[in-house]
Amino acid sequence: MRSMWKGGISFGLVMIPVRLYAATEQKDISFRQVHRADGGRIRFRRICSVDGEEVPYEDVVKGYELPTGEMVVLDDEDLADLPLPTTKAIEVLHFAPAEQLDPILFNRSYYVEPEAAGARAYVLLRDALEQSGRIAIAQVALRQRESLATLRSREGVLVLETLLWPDEVRPAAFPFLDQDIEVRPQELTMAATLIDSMTADFDPDAHHDGYREALIEVVDAKIQGRELAQPGTLEIAAGETTSLAEALKASLAAARQLPVAGQNESKGAKSGTTKDGTAKDGTAKGAKGGSTKATRKAS
Prior knowledge:
The chain is built from 7 helices and 11 strands. By secondary structure, the chain is of the alpha+beta class. A hairpin with a 2-residue loop joins strand 7 and strand 8. Residues 261-299 have low confidence and may be disordered.
């Protein structure tokens, strides 16, 4: 791995020199935009809207547009003079219980590696965090953006997780929240029983990206020039509207027939009954939506 940031953790009067590495990576299938007729790659040019000329990359800078339409031009020198002490330091502000953080605030994760000179102080902070059961709340500037962040120990390594600012989380202002929707006690009891029957320890290795696997299969079939076997069409049986209680009973009966260990693997292919009496199938829905997405990305 290649480090993407070098600085230090400011912990009280202690400065721990560290490097940051991206802890995650996307495994998406990447496509090029090409010409349908001959497969030629589509190229884009940077054209100035004022003089109509192509602009070399080294002449491209940032601009902030005012409400009047005027543009404030900022170059690297302007941004280098930002008065931010966190550009070279992860400043620990305080410590807090991990359960106080809403997961919606989590943004990106980075591994924190100590420089040789700071290994002892690094291990001290790591062990103290593990013993306390708390996480460190910090502030750091990465990629010309200052963020709140957390520091926690994972498998012997400190992990920095940047957080969104509170005003970056959209309010959940949905009309149904203002409606007086009644839920019957027996329905709530059956729903709780269904949750209990489907409860199992989370094992991320038991899950897989079905859409990516199907997409790779489509590409491989194109390369080999063979026909791709299409999944069966989802048939929706017509019938009278099923009540929520009946749907819960049917779901509970189906869940009891499955072993707990196999529930996670069966979840994508398992059919159930919705409120309106129609069948639902996560796999068929994913395949249907996936082909549209693949077409858009390839176009």
